[in-house]
Every structure is written in structure tokens, then in C-alpha cells.
Amino acid sequence: MQPLTPSLTKSLTQSRTQSLTQSLTQPGSLLRLATAGSVDDGKSTLVGRLLHDAKQVFTDQLDAVERVSRERGLEGADLALLTDGLRAEREQGITIDVAYRYFATSRRRFILADTPGHVQYTRNMVTGASTAQLAVVLVDARHGVVEQTRRHAAVAALLGVPHVVLAVNKMDLVGYAEDVFAPIADEFVSYSRALGIPEVTAILLSALLGDNVVEPSQHIDWHPGPTLLEHLETVDIDGEPASSAARMPVQYVLRPQSPDFRDYRGYAGQVTAGVFAPGDEVLVLPSGRRTSIAAIDRLGEQDLEAAGAGQSVTLRLTDDVDVARGDIIAATERAPRVTREVSATVCHLADQPLRTGDRVLLRHGTATVKALVDSIDSVLDLRTLRREPGPQTLQANDIGRVRLRTASPLPLDDYAEHRRTGSFLLIDESDGTTLTAGMVGEPLAGAVH
Ligand SMILES: Nc1nc2c(ncn2[C@@H]2O[C@H](COP(=O)(O)OP(=O)(O)OP(=O)(O)O)[C@@H](O)[C@H]2O)c(=O)[nH]1
């Protein structure tokens, strides 16, 4: 978010906002997706193929890809180079972990979280899929569902990703045989249903040859399903329940600093859920002070009629209450609970294990507090979907239940209701490494036993 400094605020115009429904623009027109797959399943090739066949590759990029492919002695263009090019950028430190690719067709716009699959695959998937509406989980048709596939499905379920596509890739290597595809699809679909994923679709493809990615395959006469792109363009994301209780973690406090701004005091951040409108009663948390919204501004516009999830705005309040960066401004109904006891389902990301008794930092929204790992209650067995009680530690990629105690109170939501204000990260105090991603409550309730 661009910080709203007083000098920027000065340039706010008086124009009124478009109606909220308009500004949140045609629902269903934007799909956020993430990919996940084991090493060599063909994720880079698939993303490259998707962008290429959807005509999203600029000619100069394609020329470069063809040239490098020729230099490497390959006959055709190696489309993995399109995304590997991005990876080189990442290695130079331009982007960490996840690069976002934007593309569009005539039917929908897409934001694709492109995550490197080799190392720390769960960490990358958690980062990429945490805001995704759809996850594409790749398998190699020759290997079918493997442990990592189950883990990807479990992470998608844990993160509350509502749509999952199983992409059975490399079908060219198994003769496009239905009796290879069908059992893989059945196994994955029933596993994902057991995890509580609302919608699962299996699609077969050959990313290398471009079969069924954007163009229907010429090699398959038995498969009536859509191509991957067609599915991405038509998957129904309109009806997804929007959390109605409003939330905004405060990112910046704008105080009057110059004589010009004597009267300006606002709290800037991104609305993570629901809708705020002037006149609404709100709570400032964790203090619990009750006040109401005097006005809503954003860069270039003042006195908006409302602000909804995803918008970065500045809220002005009717009372001169004490609000700090890290606080959450929330609707008074169904407010987050303020607590120092955190019970959560976590996915451990770092190579160093998480242990009972560890002292860590907990980052929740814009707040960071000290925390103690009180207990690690169970770890999930991905084969049986049973919780195995009493592990003393969580290893990299483990999904488990933990209890934490924080040094100061935090306003927490259940992840199942609020993805943003119901999630947190645990961070190593000494070097700032991300250790664990946490989801407050039991987002896998009903799925695991
Ligand atoms: N035969 C065949 N080979 C494929 C297909 N898709 C990918 N490959 C090959 O599989 C190998 C691995 O592909 P990548 O796209 O690099 O796979 P990846 O390791 O999942 O990607 P990253 O983890 O993101 O690097 C490459 O040699 C590809 O050419 C396919 O549909 N058919």
C-alpha cells in the first residue's frame, strides 16, 4: 500500500466515490490462483504453456525462450524458461518466494502466484495460496497421487482455498489412457472431499505438448471435460460468501503534523473483510474502545461512501481515541476476541523444528508480539487424516495443532471466518526467519479425527 503521508493527503480531492458495488468491480471477473506440484511434475512448463497459449507472452520474451532452447539443443521452445526467467529475477532478490503473474482472457482476469517447487515447497505453497481462490495441484500421470500431493491438498484445505484442480500432467507419456487418469482422479477427489474442500475438478493434460491446457487435445476422444483454461475461466467464484463483519488492521497512523493539517487524524490500512461506512460503530482492538467512523478517505478521494475488502483507505474516527499501528478497527458485532491464548492449526515451514517451550515472535496483521509455544498437541497423519497426539516437535511441512501464549493480548478471529485476521506467522526472534504459518481455531474440523 502506498503510505498516505500528510503531504499526499493534502492532495486528496473532494470527489465522491463511485458506489461500493461498482468499485469492487464485477464479481467473478478476477480469479486468484496458485500452483503446487512436486519437483519435475511440470509446473513451470504448465505455467509457461498457459501464458503462451493464452497469448500472454510478449514476442521478445518468446524470442529469448526460443534462442535459449536452441542453444540448449532443444527442438521446440522450452516453455519452463518463461517462468524460470522469473525465478532468476527472484534469485537476484527482486521478489521473494512468490512471483505474481497477471494475465487476462476475454472472459476473466487472473492473478497467478507462481511458486518455485523445489525447496520448501510447503512454505511456497502457503505463501502463494493464502489468498488464492483456486489451487492447481499437479501430479505426474506416471506417479499418480504421492505424499506431496496429499500435503498440497491438506494445505489447500487448511488455507480454505475453495476450488482445487488436480492437473494430471504428462498424459502423453501414458498414452492418454483413461484407465491411468480415472483412478488418480478418483483417489484425489475423494481425499480432497474428506478434507472438506468444497469443489475439486480433475483435468488431464500434457503441458509439454499443449494438450488440454488452452487447446483441446487431439489425442483424447474419451474425455469430455473442459480444458484447464476453460475451467479457470468458468469456475463459479461469484457466490462465495464474503465475510460481512468489517476489519481493518491499522498500518499507519496519520497525525496532524503541520499547521495545514491541524484537524487531520486518520488511520490507514487495508480493509480485510466486510464494509465500513461513515456512521458505523466500531471497536478499536485490543483496547476495546468504542467509537464510530467519521469519514473515509483514500489517495485522491475524500469522504467515500464506503470502503470494502481489498481497499486501502484512511478511516477518520469521531473520537480522539488512542490507536496504534498493529491495532484492528472492527465492526462491533462479531468482533474478534482479544486474548493471549492462541489455539491454532499450523503448518511448520522452516527446516529447524518447532518445539514446545520455544520463544518466538508472532506476527498478526500489522502487529508483532512475543509468544511462547505452550504445547504441541498433535500432528496430522496425511494418510489416515488422523491427529497423532503428543509430538514434542513439528518438523518442516508438518501440519499440527499448537497452543501459544502471547506477551500481550491480540484481537483474533477464527481463520474459518476471516482469512486475514485469523492467520499469523511465527518468526525466529534471533534472525527473523519465518518458522510457521498459523490458522486460528480448527479450520480442518470435520475433516480430521
Ligand atoms: N512428456 C512430458 N514432459 C513434460 C510435461 N510437462 C513437463 N514435462 C517435462 O518435465 C520436466 C520438468 O518440468 P518443469 O516444468 O521444469 O517442472 P517442475 O520441476 O515441476 O517445475 P518447477 O518445480 O517449477 O521448476 C521437464 O523436462 C519438462 O519438459 C508433459 O506434459 N509431458
From TrEMBL:
CDD domains: CysN_ATPS (cd04166), CysN_NodQ_II (cd03695), CysN_NoDQ_III (cd04095). It is an enzyme of class 2 (transferase). This is sulfate adenylyltransferase. Residues 1-21 are annotated as: Disordered. Residues 28-242 form the Tr-type G domain. Its EC number is 2.7.7.4. Keywords: ATP-binding, GTP-binding, Nucleotide-binding, Nucleotidyltransferase, Transferase. Pfam families: GTP-eEF1A_C, GTP_EFTU. It comes from the Bacteria. Signal peptide: none annotated. InterPro entries: CysN_GTP-bd, CysN_II, CysN_NoDQ_III, G_TR_CS, GTP-eEF1A_C, P-loop_NTPase, SO4_adenylTrfase_lsu, T_Tr_GTP-bd_dom. One of its GO terms (molecular function) is sulfate adenylyltransferase (ATP) activity. GO terms for biological process: sulfur compound metabolic process.
